[in-house]
């Protein structure tokens, strides 16, 4: 097993500790000990847990629960940790006294709300904790006293407020706020008054961290080219310094209590590792503090412990993101919402990303194009060397009947063909495949009218002809068929719709049939007599064979399991599974599709990160299909799928 190392100060000297067994030697506390020097979270044990480095240089396991623990935060006196835990079945804020006597200190929960609470930050007095809660339907900032059973809500809006950081002087709480789709740093007083902007309009920002004297604020920002970096600001708004320019994702910023170091998480070397950066001076290179195949994150330094200086041979130079080589015979990918998360597709060991282009947004008037959304998609995925499946949907008002919804197909398919020609011409060599519309056998995706396979075939022909003329190497995939059995009042049966496409002459106008074989809560191996199971892809392929099209392949462009939630998820509520089941089912489905059915060429999980974006409220079911938590930490499905895809 490979040896891992961390850097620590021992007896005033510097040493590199070589530790085996999952990257670290665990040491149980059996007596009252001084608190650890620092703490961080990692899923190296199979789920999220909190780890700490004690003053003897040993790495200790501070929590060891089958559920996930993340987001540690120190109290000012260094004796307590607040952290996010799922051990109660929800996401709550828990407290741990790290100097208690016993083999393991026993944590207890501060919050106990059915909604998700996460991202704690202590008040300097140690009497209150600020945190994020979704109890009003979206992420907002709350404060709760340790002696109280209720919390004070500080922010009120319909977008996202998160990542609170309480200033050491107690006067202000900094947090990241999304307003009109732009994330910046805001300030607010602990009583909820005097909310104000902290960062200038030209800089987007997240993950604020205060200097020990409360005079400066560090944050992670993006410049006009969307390059991430660590910025220092203060005491005046014009006093803004770019301290470190990163070349890949960075997050979880914190400032050591001695003011000398900024700690953060980065994905520079193919894994999430924790780093330290000198807050001052000319040497601006980060120092890597962990080396492990797991997801290490949220390094926080004990306010009562001095940070250590690492040796220069442990300097981790910034490097481009590492892309694992995709399997060219079988394609794996993920549906993604937040393009800043694109690097996670590489982290998972996948090769493709699926994103979305709304025709109505790109061409609001005939011949007038606004390319910002597809430009952002191709740049983000191109930077990570991710192949792109671009789903095209949404008819502009000018191209559909009056008073119809944007899901209604165009009146003139030539209009759609011209749009696809412009799209494929602009992104020739950048977009590998186009998926034409979404679940076209559903009434909703047909403008709430009756789905028409013949009309859809005309749309498909227009798209295929245009794409192949502009970019012959690009693939055209049919809109993923929803598994609907024999149909209903709101859907045409998927097999009947596919046959209708062949009857209308669709053969030869697509490179693969798209499929969305959701199992409605069943395991991948369970077969449903009505076709509501993963095995439906076999029946879809039989229709293809019956039409002498057996050489064409099936692409599963969406597949996932919704997890249980205390929110009313509507029709998704009855089919929800546990997080453990989601992990087991998703990993097994990927393996089954790749190994058991050679006619399936691709599978895209649904979804990676819809839980993390500002535009979906807490009760939106798509958030609960995600394999990331709202605070961006991995759910068990992420950890298990990553291990499966990255293991030879």
Please describe the topology of this protein:
Elements: E1 4-10, E2 13-19, E3 38-42, E4 49-53, E5 59-61, E6 69-74, E7 80-85, E8 92-97, E9 108-109, E10 117-122, E11 128-133, E12 140-145, E13 152-153, E14 161-166, E15 173-179, E16 182-188, E17 196-197, E18 204-210, E19 217-222, E20 228-233, E21 240-245, E22 250-255, E23 261-266, E24 273-278, E25 287-288, E26 296-301, E27 331-335, H1 343-348, E28 352-358, H2 359-362, H3 372-383, E29 387-393, H4 413-426, E30 433-436, H5 453-470, E31 475-478, E32 481-482, E33 487-488, E34 491-492, H6 494-503, E35 512-516, H7 536-546, E36 553-559, H8 579-595, E37 600-605, H9 636-646
Parallel strand pairs: 27-28, 27-37, 28-29, 29-30, 30-31, 32-35, 35-36, 36-37
Antiparallel strand pairs: 1-2, 3-4, 3-26, 4-5, 6-7, 7-8, 8-9, 10-11, 11-12, 12-13, 14-15, 15-16, 16-17, 18-19, 19-20, 20-21, 22-23, 23-24, 24-25, 33-34
* Multimerization status: single chain
Strand ordering within the main sheet: 31-30-29-28-27-37-36-35-32
How much strand content do the residues show? Answer: 25-35%
What's the pLDDT, averaged over the residues? Answer: 90
Compact description:
By secondary structure, the chain is an alpha+beta fold. A hairpin with a 2-residue loop joins β15 (173-179) and β16. α6 runs parallel beside α7 and α8 packs parallel to α9.
């Amino acid at each position: 097993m490979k040896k891992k190392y961390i850097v620590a100060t021992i007896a005033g000297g510097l040493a590199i500790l070589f530790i085996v067994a999952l990257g670290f030697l665990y040491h149980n506390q059996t007596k009252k000990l001084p608190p650890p020097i620092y703490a961080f979270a990692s899923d190296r044990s199979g789920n999220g847990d909190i780890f700490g480095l004690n003053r003897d240089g040993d790495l200790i396991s501070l929590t060891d629960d089958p559920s996930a623990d993340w987001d540690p935060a120190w109290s000012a006196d260094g004796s307590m940790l607040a952290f996010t835990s799922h051990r109660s079945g929800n996401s709550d804020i828990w407290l741990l006294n790290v100097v208690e006597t016993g083999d393991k200190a026993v944590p207890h929960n501060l919050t106990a709300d059915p909604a998700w609470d996460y991202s704690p930050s202590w008040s300097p007095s140690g009497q209150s904790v600020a945190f994020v809660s979704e109890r009003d339907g979206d992420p907002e900032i709350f404060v709760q006293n340790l002696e109280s059973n209720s919390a004070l809500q500080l922010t009120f809006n319909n977008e996202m407020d998160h990542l609170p950081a309480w200033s050491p002087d107690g006067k202000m709480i900094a947090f990241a706020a999304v307003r009109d789709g732009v994330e910046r740093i805001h300030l607010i007083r602990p009583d909820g008054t005097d909310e104000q902007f902290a960062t200038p309009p030209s800089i987007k920002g997240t993950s604020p961290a205060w200097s020990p004297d409360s005079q400066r604020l560090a944050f992670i920002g993006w410049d006009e080219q969307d390059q991430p970096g660590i910025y220092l600001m203060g005491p005046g708004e014009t006093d803004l310094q770019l301290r470190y320019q990163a070349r890949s994702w960075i997050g979880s910023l914190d400032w050591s209590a001695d003011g000398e170091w900024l700690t953060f998480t980065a994905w520079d070397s193919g894994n999430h590792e924790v780093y330290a950066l000198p807050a001052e001076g000319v040497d601006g290179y980060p120092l890597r503090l962990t080396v492990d195949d797991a997801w290490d994150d949220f390094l926080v330094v004990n306010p009562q412990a001095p940070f250590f200086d690492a040796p220069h041979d442990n300097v981790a130079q910034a490097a481009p993101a590492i892309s694992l080589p995709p399997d060219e015979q079988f394609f794996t990918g993920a549906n993604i919402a937040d393009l800043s998360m694109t690097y996670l597709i590489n982290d998972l060991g996948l090769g493709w990303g699926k994103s979305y282009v709304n025709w109505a947004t790109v061409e609001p008037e005939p011949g007038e194009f606004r390319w910002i959304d597809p430009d952002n998609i191709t740049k983000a995925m191109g930077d990570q060397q991710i192949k792109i499946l671009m789903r095209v949907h949404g008819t502009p008002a000018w191209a559909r009947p009056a008073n119809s919804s944007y899901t209604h197909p165009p009146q003139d398919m030539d209009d759609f063909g011209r749009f696809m020609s412009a799209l494929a011409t602009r992104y020739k060599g950048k977009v590998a495949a186009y998926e034409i519309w979404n679940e076209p056998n559903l009434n909703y995706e047909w403008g709430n009218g009756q789905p028409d396979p013949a009309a859809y075939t005309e749309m498909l022909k227009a798209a295929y002809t245009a794409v192949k003329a502009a970019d012959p190497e690009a693939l055209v995939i049919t809109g993923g068929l929803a598994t609907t059995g024999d149909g209903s009042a709101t859907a045409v049966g998927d097999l009947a719709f596919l046959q209708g496409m062949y009857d209308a002459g669709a053969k030869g106008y697509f490179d693969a049939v798209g499929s969305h074989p959701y199992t409605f809560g069943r395991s991948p191996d369970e077969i449903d007599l009505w076709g509501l199971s993963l095995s439906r892809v076999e029946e879809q392929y039989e229709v293809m064979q019956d039409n002498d099209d057996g050489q064409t392949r099936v692409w599963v462009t969406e597949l996932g399991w919704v997890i249980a939630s205390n929110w009313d998820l509507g029709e998704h509520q009855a089919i929800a599974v546990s997080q453990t089941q989601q992990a087991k089912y998703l990993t097994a489905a990927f393996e089954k599709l790749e190994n058991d059915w050679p006619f399936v060429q691709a599978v895209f999980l649904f979804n990676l990160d819809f839980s993390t974006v500002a535009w979906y409220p807490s009760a939106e079911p798509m958030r609960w299909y995600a394999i990331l938590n709202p605070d961006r930490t991995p759910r068990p499905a992420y950890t298990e799928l990553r291990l499966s895809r990255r293991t030879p």
